[in-house]
Amino acid sequence: MEKPGNWFQELRARKFNPDWILEILFQPGSERLIQDVIQKTTLEMFRKFELKKFNRIYYFCREHFDDLAGIYDGPNKKGVRGVYNVIELKEDGIDFFRYQGGHFNREIVDDETKIIESLLNDPRLKMTSWKVAWGGDEVFSEIVKEGKTLQEFLNYLNFVTCFD
Length: 164
Fold this sequence. Notes:
Strand content: 25-35%
Strand order of the largest sheet: 2-3-4-5-1-6-7
Structural class: alpha+beta
Number of helices: 5
Oligomer: single chain
Number of strands: 7
Order of helices and strands: HEHEEHEEHEEH
């Protein structure tokens, strides 16, 4: 069986800019399960950041961790320029953000893939919807593909290999 593609391959190939987003939602009440699965996943290129005042959990790419933490919860209000990756855990779901397309180094891509595979393979979680989009400032400008089932998502990951 051919290895599935990465969720962002179509966006990269079609040169959608500036930011790319993958949203995966699971059954209601799954927030703690999502946290548990990710906590057990070894990540090389992301560090956990808890925004306690809003009860949110993020994973920032290590390269920009201090700058991003400063934006989200500190004195740095000027923003981060350039390419960076953020993963946001939210109620019943997870968002992957690739700002300016994100980093493409193998370790970043591997970490994203490990998280996605861990979540999709956990029998306690049931995907209820997913979407791949591009936009700016964490806003969906255009939804490129969306679905409701795990099989539809897996079909999409197999489809995007044509963009290699």
